[in-house]
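**Fold in tokens:**
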Amino acid sequence: MANLGEFTGMSAEEAIAAAAKKYSNRGKWGPDDEIGAANFITPQKVAAAAKLVRQGKTFGLAFAFDSSGPQTGQFGRHNPIHMMAFSGSDTIAGSFPLPHGFGAADDNVWMPLQCGTQWDSLAHIFDHGEMWNGYSCALVNSFGAGKCGIQTLREKLVSRGVLLDVPRAKGTDVLEDGYAITAADLDETIAKQGKTSTVQAGDIVLVRTGQLGKRRAEGWGDYCGGAAAGLSFTTLGWLHKAQVTAVATDTWGVEVKPNELPHSFQPFHQVAIPHMGLILGEMWDLDALAADCAADGAYEFQLVAQPLPFTGGIGSPVNPIAIK
């Protein structure tokens, strides 16, 4: 059994309940709050993050939204389906005769909002029928999320980004599937990377495992939902103490798979989202950014990562930009 520190010896139900109580931020920003830990990003934080831009380098942290993505249909998620409404062929065929040689193309995309590089909204996960801040899960219905929809974060996720490149700190390219990243691993990574990776309140922390790059090169396999390195359940306390706004990784589910707590499903999510108000990002492409950070020794940057404001959305595709 995994070493779960203070939760060792507890059942999964007991450990989740204990962590939820100990690390709860519910009510911290009032009974009507819908943005959770995004409240840690202040105007001063945004201004300070802008000052981290010194070279004008930009890194897009999304992989392509197309039919070659990793989705297998599990949980009803499929890769984006891109369809043309009208195209150059229609212009040639004269299907849309418009004056003076004018032509155009238009298109549509059908996709689950969480099929690629994405943010989870605070309406994504429930614990015993409640989402963030104690709102009832009944508020999420066939019309979407009546509270905590992804649109509430549309202008919030601009902050200081920090990359914690855990495998590189351990002298390897990729962590083994199923490796649980502990608080000690995060501290060790920060110590090896130096002071630019010290985590501060309101930061968006990017944790690289190397899995995305490996699977993209060798084949997706069970990348979506299979075994993966990820954050240990025991890192919840570390993140809570640091007052982190968001955590994103290069894996499907942020936390380690298989899950550490027996007979549980994504227990880190079950505490982080509905109790801490922590915003989670998944399937972020961190390899090029990691190589640049290793080369210049700067692991902090301005991060601009707005979700698309789908009203009532449970998640959103995103193309995060790290700017150095």
